[in-house]
Amino acid sequence: MQLSDFQAFPNLVAMFLARAEFFGERPLLWAKRSGQWQSQSWREAADQVCLLAEALRGLGLDPGDRVVLVSENRPEWCIADLAIMAAGLVTVPAYITNTERDHQHVLENSGARAVIVSNAKLAQPLLTACLSAADVGHIIGMEPLRRMQSERIQFHNWSEMVGGDATLARLSVAARVAAIGRHETACIIYTSGTGGLPRGVCQHHGAILCNVDGAAHILAEDLGWDAAGETTEVFLSFLPLSHSYEHTGGQYLPIGMGAQIYYAEGLEKLASNIEETRPTMMVVVPRLFEVLRARIMKQVEKQGKLPNYLMARAMAIGARKAAGKGRLIDRPLDFVIGRTLRPKIRQRFGGRVKAMVSGGAPLNPDVGVFFDAMGLTVLQGYGQTESGPVISCNRPAVGLAMDSVGPPMRGVDVKIADDGEILVRGELVMYGYWRNEAETLRAIPKDGPQAGWLHTGDIGHFDEKGRIKITDRKKDMIINDKGDNVSPQRIEGMLTLQPEIGQAMVSGDKRPYVVGLIVPDGEWALEWSRAQGEKFDLTALQDLPAFRTAIRAAVDRVNKDLSVIEKVRQFAFADEAFTIDNQEMTPSMKIRRHKIRERYSARVDGLYKG
């Protein structure tokens, strides 16, 4: 059996059931319970998907009804998602970090008739929102829930919903699934809201299948994935499955490839989970790469002169290779680094990683060069929820360029508009936003020379090898008072590579120069306070002239590599880190500029006075 013919499947459930039939008792889903990794086979997962699908239909839900799914990453997430689709319904994933107000918007906007939630803690803000949402009639708890008094809403236990005769359930599901086409909506994924109220992106089955097809072909042709199914890849899932990047890349791609999926216990245990599960593929966001890079460098710094020398030489050699200026004289030392330093770094990632795919936000080229120099292949991808989400990806066969996001994937058409905006066309493009015709027409015009093309809002161009290079977000671009264009993401990426700076946001639209809002790195600040004999209090430290001078030195180091119009002339400290909890960062770890501007507008404006 060749696993690479994704065009043959009418929908995602059909693909899953075909894989389950082929792999049978092989393990599919892994989770840590009572301190031990425990697996669920393809057959067991398929039985539960079919039983849950029939139970959902038994609640009186009709084809096309929406079901909201709120859960941390776990096997039941995958089973619930597939079961909803197998019932002819539409999954509406919601972030576990949502507030009651966030949940209320998703419930009311989607018109969801049922909700699946994992546990009592996550149910707390959700249940109150359900009371206000007129259409919700059923709540299913993966774990026991405290039931509230309601004449309208019925509560159901997961264990009861997945019980019964799987043989009969499979027959019913098979008949129903055969009639679901690639054009039908699989899920409504709400954007993370970097610029305002989240909008529901309607992703059809064909959009995600197109993504899986393109990604799998890259892995097969460039990284040795066995499309005959003789060997099994291992994915570690830790980004939120409610985000389209993980939903497609961390769930349906491994299902399509016949891979195993391990669910991480959380970001705080990610490092140990990586060593335990030894993944071959990882889907990662740039912010995590930046954190891992900083940790690796700090660990090497403590190991003495030789490891530090090898690290410095590896990075220098990597930078020359990335610039196409590799030297023969570097080869002997590169060989030594390959036998000493790189194996130790790779072991921290389990020792068998074939590739780490970066997406969700731009990756600073220096970070990509660092991991490549350490012997870890980083493939930077590009996309957005409206495109399934992946549009392009770097691939070794074309040549890795850390300042690009690679060529368009198979089945994807890309062109550059006159104003530099990246336009996309193909089966991967959404049909529209849920109940939002005006925004749909803005994103995909029906008339004119660009009718039918998704307007990404990103600015970029093709290089000589057909790889896409993104220069900025169209709406985020800073245009100063002289009309010059400045890329904020590039400057922020350079700032956060400095050990003193944890996070940054720069401003300067319609202003004479660029200014920055900075969150100092907590670990660096702790070390600095100890060295200076000061009490560690991040807020109090920011009032010390010596502390500000140290941060200023980091900003000045960055300014040396920036043009005159890009230099950060003044900066202020933020009151706290940008986080998901304070709504200044999305669950995919991108800063929410409009929220930060609202909070710090007076402070930023003050940087232009005097």
Describe the structure concisely.
With 610 residues, the protein is α/β, with parallel strands linked by helices. It has 21 helices and 25 strands.
> Which oligomerization state do the chains in this entry correspond to?
single chain
Taking strands numbered 1, 2, ... along the chain, how are they ordered across the largest sheet? 2-1-11-10-12-13-14-15
- Portion of residues in beta strands equals 15-25%
Helix content: 25-40%
The 3D shape can be described as: globular
What number of domains? 3
CATH class group of the largest domain: Alpha Beta
* CATH-level-2 architecture of the largest domain: 3-Layer(aba) Sandwich
Structural class: alpha/beta
Number of strands: 25
State the CATH topology of the largest domain: Rossmann fold
Low-confidence stretches: none
What is the residue-mean pLDDT, rounded to a whole number? Answer: 91
Radius of gyration from CA coordinates? 25 Å
The profile of the biggest β sheet is: 8 strands, mixed
Helix count from the secondary structure assignment: 21
**Ends: how far apart?**
71 Å
Describe the model:
The protein is an alpha/beta fold and 610 residues long. The chain folds into 3 domains: 6-269, Rossmann fold, CATH 3.40.50; 281-351 and 353-473, Rossmann fold (3-Layer(aba) Sandwich), CATH 3.40.50; 478-606, 2-Layer Sandwich (GMP Synthetase, Chain A, domain 3). The protein contains 21 helices and 25 strands. It has an 8-stranded mixed sheet, with helices on both faces. Helix 4 (100-110) crosses helix 5 (120-132). The protein is globular, with a radius of gyration of 25 Å. The termini are far apart. The relative contact order is 0.08. The model has no long low-confidence stretch (mean pLDDT 91).
